[in-house]
Every structure is written in structure tokens, then in C-alpha cells.
Amino acid sequence: MTTMRTAAEYRASVADGRRVWYQGRVLEDLAAEPITKGLVDSYARWYDWHSDPEWNDTLWVDGPEGRQPLSFIAPKDVGTLRKLANSIRLVAQQDAGTLSHTPGYGALIMLGVSDVLASYGESGAAAAAEKYYRSMAAHGRFVTGVYAPAQTDRFRPPEERLAVQVVEERDDGIVVDGALAIGTSLAYSDEVFSAPIPYPGMPVSQAVWFAFGVNAPGVEMVLRKPASLDQDPFSFPISSRFDEHESALILRKVFVPWDRVFAYRAPETCLYLTRAMGWLLLSHLARMLARYEFSLGLGLTVTSSLKTSKIPGVTEVLTDLAIQTETLRTALSASVADATLSPAGNLLPDLSHLAVGTLQGLSGEATVAKTVRTLAGQGVMMAPTQQDLEAGDLQPYIEKLFGGGELSAHERSALFHLITDHTASATEGRVAAFSSLSTGGELLWRRRLRWAFKQAGHDNACADLVTKVLRDSTGVDLDIRADFAAEDPRIPGY
């Protein structure tokens, strides 16, 4: 049975001695620091929703051990998987599809690790991962993952790289040392799962999967610069609350007990890292759909407020936004409908549908943002701040400049600031970069699609249609099998 902690308990947890560096100093309490408070509040809100009756049907499900948070239960049937996807989408709608790493996302990380080790790994490691996952679920802990090596490691031989590796083996655990380039929301989590992206020639000392507390001795995190230094929620309604900080991670001889080690000196196991990401990829597509829905909502709202929505050209543009949004919805629904059981007995979304939806989403993000900005017109560039709206001498002129129709100057400015923050801010740029980089980018997604297409036999099925029609029509019987280049997406070095 899961005991979900409260928002207050989560806020207190981020002042546990963790070492988070920002602009040359260590932040003492993330819940009180202006630059981090907004995101702490957003994650705390996620915990509070679990005790809110309005969210009960969205976030909870009846499981084998009674009523459980949906994020912390392994889906065994299509109904549960569909509810999980919809829950992720509905949660993401609350932040305009900006936040990816909620505590629920962390649960999917460890579900994938547990599943892949149970399916392909050594029994002891699988048991350790399963025990860890159950413990995490029982207490609603916030876990995130970190994988990316330093870009500068490409200039060093494998034995000299910064990549995290085991430097000491003890009876009670291992000691690890090294650094990783980037991890999302590390500073806000309770624990971190670390796994290397495999590469040719990787030393066995680096082939380790493990978890550790962010407040463990020797753990240092360095926050990137914020998307906006201005925390004014009127001018920056998204950036002030949902800028999901990434951190560089430094591990200085950090001790990890054996019950937190899930793969040890196991290069073959490390090849299965991408196989552990099925539910994460579902989460990314569900969040991307929420972001497209929000963009479409902005387009509909601003054109209705400006009385331009029925202009034929505008109507067609809005229709294009709807088509793009519904394409993602269809792909997400299909990935659930065609899901298959993993060897461990958990239901995995179909990779080919996830790939099609994500590729469509990645390729259209910039165009959608530009379209919404264009629909808003020039006023979106000039929306006054709260201080301008309240300036006594200017107020009558500001009201005439921006007020009109059904909206006051204050209301229209708030809408324009939301559009700008969603489509033309540093936060928007960060989300676009994250959407691509966090799951491997378009090239890897295309590889995933080819692999899933071939694994399902669709390539030969399509080619066989040609052979049959040709044989039936002309008597010519071609003896050709489809030769579709489909590399295993686990291939080292992606």
C-alpha cells in the first residue's frame, strides 16, 4: 500500500543537506530560494492532487494491493495502460505540457528498469530492482534518471573519461566516482538512477546501474542558468513556475549499498537501457500531446478574442493545428491499443506508433509555435507589464491600446504574455531541445520506427502484397524478400 506524502512533506524534504550549486553558491533550501521555489511548488502540487477528490479518478486505480496511485503500478492490461497515458496527459495540461519529470515520471523509470532486468537480466539484480521499485512506490519517493556523459569525453580514451565508474568494491557496497553532463530535476528529487549510455570499448568498471540519494556525501549538483531571471508570474506565467532545471552531476567517491546496485560490471545488461524506456516514451508522447492541445487552445482563444477566427484563412490555419494535434492523439491511442506484454508480464506500448507520433510532434513544434504567435498578431510583442498597466498617467492610453472587444487591457495582456512565454521564450526553447535530446533525437526515433516496423513483419507483409498482385495478374512470381535497413536501436554509441 502506497502512503503518498503531502505537499508540505515534499517541501521539507528538499532542505535535507543536498548540495545544489547555483551561481557560485550552495542553495540551502530550494523551497525558499526565489529561483527554485516555483518548481518546488509545482512538484508539491503533484503530491497534493493525490488527496484532492477531483483528481481521484485520474491519479488512483484499484490494484492488487488495494487503491494505489496510478503512477506507481505496473500496467498489466490495456485499460490500465490507457488510463496511465490519459493521466499523464491530464497532469501535463496543467503546466502547458512543460514539465516532463514529475514524481510519476520517476516511477516509470524504475518500472522500466525492474521490467527489463526481470525480462533479460540476472535474477539477483532483478530482485534488487523489484524490491527498490516497490519500496519507492510504497512511499511515493521522487526518483529521476541521469545517463548523458560529458561531451568532452569524446576527446579522452575510455579509461580517462569522466564517466561514472566503480573505484572501490566493499562488502557492503561499491564506491563510484565521476561526472555526468545533464539530468533533469536532479536537484528536486529524492534519489537518482544512474546508467551509462553504452559505447564501443566501454570499460566494465563503467557498466553499472545504481541508485543513490541526492543528499549522499560526495554528491554535487550544478544548476544551469534559469530560462528567466524575472519571476513575475504575470509576464512569465510559465517560466516562473515550470522551468524544469537541469543539473550537471558530480559524484566524489559516493558510496552505494548493494541493494541499490542493479547491474554490476555488466556491459551486456547496459545494452538493454533503451528497452527499459517504453513507458517513458509513452509519457513523452502524452506530454507532447498536452503541449499541442495547449497550443491549439491558445490559437482558438486569441483568434476568438480578436474576432478573427472566422476569417477563411485563419479558419484553415486553426484546422491545421487541429490536424497536427489529433495526429498525436491517434498515435498515442494506437500505441496503447496495440500494446504487447513484456517477457516479465507488463504491458508495453507499441513502439512503432510511439515513433510516428513523436516524430510528427518533433517536426511540427517550431511551426506550431510560429503559427500561434502569428495568429496573435503584433500585440503579442508589445503587451504591457503589470506595472505599466497600473501606471496612473498611462492607464487610460494603455487601456485603449490593448483593451477592446470582450477583453480589458489587463486580460488581453495576460493572454499575450502567456502566448509569448509558451511560444517564444527561453523556456519554450528549452522544452523543444529537451523533447528532442531526452529521447535520442529524430535520427534515433527513425531507427526505432524501422526496427519496430521490421520486428512486426510489416516490411515483408507489404512486399508480399506486391508479389501476390503481380502473380495473380501476370503469372510472374517474384522471389524477393524485403531488405529494409533496420538497425537495433540498442546499438552502442547512440
What's the tally of helices? 18
Overall outline: globular
The main sheet comes to:
6 strands, mixed
Radius of gyration: 25 Å
Strand order of the largest sheet: 2-1-10-11-7-6
Mean pLDDT: 91
Could you tell me the number of beta strands?
A: 14
Distance between the termini: 39 Å
| Portion of residues within helices | 40-55%
Percent strand: 5-15%
**Low-pLDDT residue spans:** none
Structural class: alpha+beta
From the structure above, extract its key features:
globular, 494 residues, 49% helix, 18 helices, four-stranded mixed β-sheet, single chain, six-stranded mixed β-sheet, alpha+beta
Describe the structure.
The chain has helices at 7-13, 34-49, 56-59, 78-93, 103-120, 123-139, 239-242, 267-270, 278-305, 312-337, 351-376, 379-382, 386-390, 395-402, 409-423, 426-437, 441-455, 458-474, and strands at residues 20-22, 25-26, 60-63, 66-69, 143-146, 165-170, 173-184, 191-194, 208-213, 219-223, 246-257, 261-264, 340-341, 347-348. The chain is an alpha+beta fold and 494 residues long. The protein has a six-stranded mixed sheet, with no helix packed on it. The longest helix is centred in the middle third of the chain and has 28 residues, at 278-305. The mean pLDDT is 91.
Question: What's this model, at a glance?
Answer:
With 494 residues, the protein is α+β, with helices and mostly antiparallel strands.
